[in-house]
Please model this.
Amino acid sequence: MLRLNKVKKNYKGFQLDCTLEVQEGCVTGLIGKNGAGKSTTFKAILGLLHTDGGSIEIFGKPITKIGVREKEDIGVVMSDSGFSGYLTVQDLIPMLRNMYPRFQEAEFLRECNEQKLPLNKKIKEFSTGMKRRLQVLAALTHGAKLLLLDEPTAGLDVIARDELLDMLRTYMEQDGRAILVSSHISSDLEGLCDDIYMIDNGKIVLYEETDVLLDTYGVLKVTKEQYEKLDHAHILRHKKEEFGYSCLTDQRQFYQENYPEIAIEKGTIDELIMIMIRGER
Amino acid sequence: MKLIINHSSMQPIYEQIVEQIKNKVMHGELKEDTMLPSVRTLAKELKVSALTVKKSYDVLEEEGFVNTVHGKGSFVAFANQGLLLEEKKKEVEADLEKAIRKGRSCGLTDPEIRTLFEIILED
Model:
């Protein structure tokens, strides 16, 4: 549904070089620390900035050939976008109705009710969580096939995040849909994404299916002596610690079986990222 | 479907799902022809990736616990369960026969073989 091939963007001191793909029926995550290039990638996809190389295709068409019809099939939530604070939700409805021929007004109203989003209060009086949920709702209710969400959970408390992720899971229950979502909160991604791209310094440094990451990757915590005796064949990165080294492996079972005395952790995606980015090969 | 996933366990999530569904089928909690929840519905319930659920459904199908009808869903294949058991019984029979033959061929008497068998059973 979405394909980026060697998309390049040069800024002073930063260069984006990104290749990724989102398949139909999949939720693909993009993680990276702040400034790694997540938002730049989204802006490139949306044509909000000129790229210096590479190609981007949505629904199989280059973005230069995307017309209004295709744009109606895309739902977008960017971290710094929003509706005008002076409008109420009620005001938004005719706007959305006119912008999107497939706007599902009844469903939108029903969800607003369920989510306790007041129809007649000015949006600027909403909390951050409410504003974000309104944005996501608007993106989910116009028949979009592809959702592009740049850090939709940023600034939300735990409960609000969970509710938002649930909205996305419900959205995916129907066929023919896909989501590209970025976050720097990995627990969000563990419970939602099917596969994950890790971006650092403008480049994709890791791509893996979520369950492979959770099932086979691990973090070994070893003393200096243990590290020297270790088989390094499956160590992707290592990082010096107080106690010795932490090592990232993509074959934790191998080490579990051959070195039963070593401390091995499953590792959350956050921990995996930390070593991936901060460790050395 | 009441499945409990332990996210901090070292056991892969898809394995936990397979094991728990297998147990439910074998204990009769999931009866033959019961339709399992769709991949994405279960993924939503368990808050895991849809690919993980798909993997477990694939394994369950391979092992004969589940039949997937394209376009309709996945159904518990209890009848096959009985067949599987029959298959396994035959394999155990064949293995036992082999062991007995070997025992006899190296001069063990039947009572001696029987004693060996009892010892191993007790282990």
Notes: DSSP finds five helices and two strands in chain B.
